[in-house]
Specification:
Chain lengths: 480, 145, 480, 145
């Protein structure tokens, strides 16, 4: 695989744009012009690169409702009251499944009931013009956040609509977000998206791309999410993407989380260089704990704060913020702003403190590097140095395997569990291509926990760990 | 006496898989027969699985916020399919946003669900209810735990 | 000074108990019996020593209202809903000034209005029996928390009333809590309190004593509060006290805070041993940020969480918890429980993570040890090895000097400011007995900040730092 | 034209000293004459300082929660002392607990205070008000900032 041929790409575009009537509004030349006349302040990558240079951590919420006027109000509020540095537009689940008819129905019901019946903003249904209304109504740059296996039309419409950052990837928006969509297909869909971004790039328009780091958000060992982020980086770079934000979902053990963020950029740059992409800029994204939250809001604030601490100390370029309503449902705007303000206070208080490179931190980093190397080498071997082919074959073979993923294209043998300090380890390796050293490390760590809890290392630990943070702990210790 | 059979799944375009795994595990641990149709299941998937297995109950999960739209009409579909009296439970984050639980419960009862559960419900709670409901209906006297 | 002679002590007691009619209820023999029949679960030191052994951090709120029934309800709620491990009874400000008449007035107004018109529980006015009602109504142990320069009667009544832990000290409850009460006087008053605790101890009743660590709560450098805690430890040990909890108020820089807690116990034990007290058990108390809080509750949660993080990582035996209402006023019980739950979640998530001894941590610890040594040596020299005399003379000479203290017995020359990482340093040494090495260290650290902020090191930094946390930062950087 | 003179202090058994220091510093920076009687000052301390210095205003701080009780009657004492028209400001955490500000402001206005300030007020805000009030009273035309 190389960069998609321009002619072929342009031909495919015509088909994609027919997916829904609003596709016809997209005129890419006009869109490029629109972007070129945009205020520099409204371009995500400008803010990200500045933050990276100044070693700041920016804060960004998740937010999206069915009706545009409400959506704008919501985002304004999150900027003004919540002090958000970057804003999102989270897309609803019907749109994510290309079910635009259901989305239309959701819009109607929302209009009738006067409250959002969709869990996000249905950008495709609204089209380019409405997207631009949103962009223009807000003083900070906006990103599209979703979870769409086939986001070609969504990308066409939102990028033409003035968004300067687009989340997702052929793996990261399939495996955790779909059941029966083939990986081959989604990688192709996302090569299209990347090619579209690359096309804008060729024309001098800088769009940032962000693979979805946290995957299923639940006890994902860093080497798994890092490997997938790296493969998606290579796939994106191949299509001409120059700006990448790579994400990682907090696991809760500070040292492991810091090690993860620090190695994420380092490893991504390493492999990008190795495969000949010298001019790609990498920034990092830290997601506050993505698994089950405590119901109690005061406890949720603690989880949010702890995520902010790890984001700040690991010096992630931005942090995606949870809210005190997380366990209950889509947050009110007040709850959303609350999560932001808590995060802002922590990030501000910690930005000058730094963290030292300690023995334990070094060890975590060493292990992540080792594991990623073993995975990526095998992926590239299976794919004959083509990351797309490598990814498809590796998922088939269980060389790549995401815990708790709904996709039938995921083998699903890997099981994670926390060790005695709360770091996430492998309980079951499935078919991951790890050598003895790696396995001995994880086995030892879990054995340690077994001893300290006086029980067998096993599946009950996984269950207990899934519930743990929601129940006020980090490690799912046996009760009583 | 047959084992109680439960059809389990996550409805609509919803991909939240973790709770579904745990529910399956807990139901099995409790000695029930579980048909897990997994995430992204349509109303028809639920009906078909229930028809095929002669299930006693359908457990619908909805996490992602579209539960109100997705779950509507399932009871009517059951009636059409001739399994109108099957036990229907729903749980997860059934509506969008943090709303008063009594309101949501009423909503789902109105839609023909026998029981609905708020976020954070532990499987054990619902398994005990299931035992009671089945006992009440009198067709089985099995006790799951 | 040595232990107060028993006869003299018993004679003084008779006078003290005449301070207010309820004094007559105190029968110390009966009280000793009462304590001996108390449930082991209700004795503070049992819980503290167990926590210390298991490396846990217990959580404790501040709470006190005017009316006993309301006070009991409040504490029950903080235990049941707030998951408090230890409970307080915070005493009102009139009682703290021995203004029992004004307290009586406050009780009346509270009864009439149906809401507490006092900022705490007036234990002296209620007497022994009511105290015992409180103790008996609750399943966990209770401590008296106040700020009383002359707490002799309060101690008599509350200890006879079944409390097993008593906060305060001759310095720490004078300098930050009084204006014109002589230090000589308060040290004597508190020798009485310690002697009373020592008396119970001789009779086999274990009462814990806790000097008030945070002092004015505002940018107090660790070596100042440590020195005072050590002097109060020696004073207490001299009167037969065997259990001491030593406190420290969070400053906000994690490494400095961890260094402070770790050295606090180490140094206290060192000096206790040095002066011949081998059998005193020392536990530690971490106070979440004691200075001005943000008004915004979400931001207050962040400050609370960050305090909980430092408490857990430094492995303090207990943490005293702030609430989201801190900047506004005495918290509702709900707000109080919220602060507790946030803290509990953090402490639970962090209890197994630990922190490594790093270069920066070592340096902070080294500096604290050095500074404390220079202060304590000078204090003991001035006092001819008598800590009481040493304290009085040292405050006169500015060898001991607490920033922002209201007392006219405090020289008040010392000025603290944050360095470029937020650690609290000395901007003005006043007459502190520091050598060149120490001063060079602080000067350098502040010069670094000056450079990074491109402004002179000076008083404006102090003002900015006082406001900083309240305004969402840690370091008071120049605006604009 | 004389400098404006403000008597500053913290009333009652209140020892919160930090805000008082900052207020003194800010008032001086703004060019005012400040008599700081410090923490733990009684109503008489305020009156005496105002009489001695012919002050234009009294700034009372109360942080610790007993403000409602401690501040009551100060206006009456001023009247008795023959300085009934002196400007009286109060600020800090004036009552116990987090209460609606309008309620507290009304309470203090009712007690004869010209102005009352909620927690977190920056000195500058009140200094500007002071300028206005003094200007309105017409006895001085000095502008502090
Ligand atoms: C992990 C997670 C994800 C992962 C899911 C990975 C995967 N494939 O499984 C990812 C990141 C992919 C994700 C995506 C999305 N998510 Co999500 N997610 C969560 C989160 C944090 C935890 C869910 C979880 O695993 N919990 C742990 C398990 C054990 O608990 P559980 O799922 O609640 O199930 C238990 C009980 O509810 C109960 N139960 C469940 N069903 C039933 C049924 C019956 C009959 C009974 C008796 C009991 C029962 O028993 C289960 C076991 O104990 C929740 C919030 C939370 N709970 O903290 C949000 C949450 C569910 N997600 C939400 C949303 C909106 C989304 C997205 C639409 C948008 C987004 N944020 O990107 C997409 C949806 C995509 C889609 N099409 O479904 C919202 C739903 C909003 C609402 N209802 O108002 C939530 C509540 C977060 C929030 N507050 O906004 N999510
Ligand atoms: C530091 C502190 C202490 C220190 C004080 C050290 C010292 N001697 O100065 C210590 C630990 C000793 C302490 C003790 C107590 N405290 Co205290 N303390 C605080 C805290 C955390 C910060 C105060 C501070 O320094 N702020 C920084 C300065 C710069 O701001 P400021 O004081 O608010 O003043 C500014 C403005 O308010 C305004 N202002 C003030 N007065 C005036 C007047 C006018 C006319 C104007 C225009 C403006 C103005 O300008 C100032 C400068 O910007 C506050 C809560 C908070 N604010 O976060 C509680 C707080 C004031 N304390 C409180 C209480 C109850 C107590 C105690 C009774 C009990 C206890 N917790 O131990 C004792 C009281 C002892 C006594 N007799 O007074 C309560 C008061 C409750 C209420 N009003 O409902 C508070 C609000 C905490 C709480 N939420 O419970 N405290």
């Amino acid at each position: 695989m190389a960069m998609i041929d321009k002619e072929k790409f342009l031909a495919e575009r015509q088909k994609v744009l027919q997916g829904w009537p609003t596709g016809q509004e997209v005129d890419i030349k006009e869109a490029i012009n629109y972007h070129k006349n945009m205020d520099q302040e409204k371009i995500v990558i400008n803010k990200l690169l500045q933050a990276r240079a100044e070693r700041l951590t920016l804060i960004q919420p998740r937010a999206g409702v069915a009706l545009p006027a409400e959506h704008i109000k919501l985002l304004k509020y999150l900027y003004e009251e919540g002090e958000a540095d970057l804003l999102p537009t989270t897309i609803d689940s019907y749109t994510r499944q290309n079910q635009y008819r259901e989305a239309e129905q959701g819009i109607k019901e929302s209009e009738e009931l006067g409250r959002s019946m969709l869990n996000g903003f249905p950008a495709v249904n609204y089209g380019v013009k409405v997207c631009r209304q949103i962009i223009e109504a807000l003083p900070v740059p906006l990103q599209v956040r979703h979870g769409t296996p086939d986001a070609r039309l969504l990308a066409e419409i939102t990028l033409a609509g003035g968004f300067t950052d687009f989340e997702g990837g052929g793996i990261s928006y399939n495996i955790p977000y779909a059941k029966k969509v083939s990986l081959e297909a989604t990688i192709k869909y996302w090569q299209y998206v990347d090619r579209l971004v690359g096309y804008y790039q060729e024309e001098g328009v800088r769009i940032n791309r962000e693979p979805f780091g946290p995957l299923t958000g639940t006890l994902v060992p860093p080497s798994i999410s890092h490997s997938i982020a790296i493969i998606e980086s290579l796939l994106a770079a191949e299509q001409g993407v120059k700006y990448l934000s790579l994400g990682y979902g907090q696991n809760g053990n500070l040292i492991q989380d810091v090690a993860a963020v620090q190695t994420l950029r380092e490893l991504a740059e390493h492999y990008l260089h190795k495969y000949g992409y010298e001019d790609v800029e990498v920034t990092t994204v830290f997601h506050q704990w993505m698994g089950g939250f405590p119901q109690d809001e005061s406890k949720a604030y603690a989880v949010i704060s702890w995520g902010a601490v790890a984001a700040a100390l690991s010096n992630a370029t931005k942090v995606i913020v949870k809210t005190p309503h997380e366990a209950m449902g889509i947050p009110t705007r007040e709850a959303n702003a609350s999560g932001l303000k808590t995060t802002k206070q922590i990030v501000n208080m910690l930005c000058d403190q730094g963290i030292e490179q300690t023995t334990r931190l070094d060890l975590e980093k060493k292990m992540i590097r080792l594991e990623v190397k073993q995975i990526i080498e095998k992926v590239m071997e299976l794919g004959d140095d083509d990351p797309a082919l490598g990814a498809v074959r590796s998922f088939e073979a269980g060389i790549l395997d995401v815990p708790f993923a709904p996709s039938s294209y995921n083998v699903g043998k890997v099981l994670p569990a926390r060790d005695d300090r709360g770091a996430v380890r492998f309980l079951n390796y499935g078919d991951l291509p790890f050598d003895r050293e790696v396995k001995a490390f994880h086995d030892d760590k879990l054995a340690e926990r077994g001893v300290s809890e006086d029980r067998d290392v096993g599946f009950q630990m996984v269950i207990d760990d899934i519930y743990a943070i929601g129940k006020g702990m980090l490690i799912g210790r046996p009760r009583g | 006496m047959d084992k109680t059979t439960v059809v389990l799944g996550v409805i609509g375009a919803d991909v939240h898989a973790v709770g579904n795994r745990i529910l399956e595990y807990s139901l099995k641990q409790a000695g029930l027969n579980v048909i897990n149709i997994g995430v992204m299941s349509s109303q028809n998937d639920f009906i078909n699985a229930a028809l095929e297995t002669g299930a006693d109950a359908i457990w619908v999960s909805s996490l992602y916020g579209h539960g109100e739209m997705d779950c509507r009409g399932l009871r009517e579909k059951c009636l059409e399919a001739g399994i109108g009296d099957i036990l229907l439970y729903a749980g997860g984050n059934l509506v969008i946003g943090k709303r008063d639980w009594p309101y949501v419960e009423e909503l789902f009862r109105g839609m023909g669900y026998d029981r609905a559960y708020p976020p954070g419900t532990l499987p054990e709670t619902a398994i005990i209810d299931l035992e009671k409901d089945i006992y009440k209906k009198g067709d089985k006297n099995w006790r799951p735990c």
